Amino acid sequence: MARMDALRENSVVHLSLDQLEETMALVTHSGQILAFNFSQPWAKRTADDPPALLPICQSFHVGGIIGVDCSVRRPFLVTSGVDKSVRIWNTSTHRLEMCQYFSSQPGPVSIHPNGLYVVICFPDKVLVMSVLWNCLHEHRVLNLRNVTDVKFSVGGKYFALAHGNLIHLYNALTCDAHGQLRGHPQKISCFQWAATSPYPTDNGMVSCSLDGIIINWNISELRKDGEYADKRYQYRVVVADDKNMWAVGDPASSAAEAQCKSILREMDRFGL
């Protein structure tokens, strides 16, 4: 089945030859636009020696995008897709800077605020990679399976990985383990770095899970600063600033569904 899908994506749906009959352009089923030299000695060509195909315009992901993150200090945006590629885009020029394919499908990705490092989650491992001018170079391998989310801190000192009901913290420079955040009884659905002051420090974090629990964390002391639980809702996304917190969730029952179309409660982050 996988082979048939690959053949379908690479199949040609349209051909066009220029007036001088020198260049043949083609469009594949996946939307890629390619070209090759048509004015060549075809008698010398064999099935094992096809002509070189060159992209006419920059390539895009084939299929859906899984992970996306943006650098703060450089105009870089990183994406991962079901086509097993990780791509770095320039948000200033709107062009593709780099594309690298992997043997397994990448999942969540995060790019350092300085744009020099990328963390990529795979089903069986986590790769910390350096961003070079034409490729991604492996810097460190972390043996964690099925990581569901990854984020660099605002200042870039740490990066965090959501692994089941735990959050693993690592030093962004050395990739050494900094600690773990324990407190969620069920799988973590989302977490975000947050500061305790208007200045963007790396001393706070908020997280949520599908069992209706939101936790405010103190990163300096690796402990809870507060907890809010509402079993009526399955929280999927949570964000916070230095004062407030916002969470989005689904109703866990039909009784709660009627209330989810309005604001139930505005929560003071430090009043949990």
UniProtKB/TrEMBL annotation:
Pfam family, one: WD40
Keyword Lipid biosynthesis among UniProt keywords: no
Superkingdom assignment: Eukaryota
UniProt keyword list: Repeat, Ribonucleoprotein, Ribosomal protein, WD repeat
One Gene Ontology cellular component: ribosome
InterPro entries, alphabetized: CFA-57, WD40/YVTN_repeat-like_dom_sf, WD40_repeat_CS, WD40_repeat_dom_sf, WD40_rpt
TM regions (residue ranges): none
WD repeat placement: 58-99
PANTHER family noted in UniProt: CILIA- AND FLAGELLA-ASSOCIATED PROTEIN 57
Protein name: Uncharacterized protein
Organism: Trypanosoma cruzi
Organism placement in taxonomy: Eukaryota, Discoba, Euglenozoa, Kinetoplastea, Metakinetoplastina
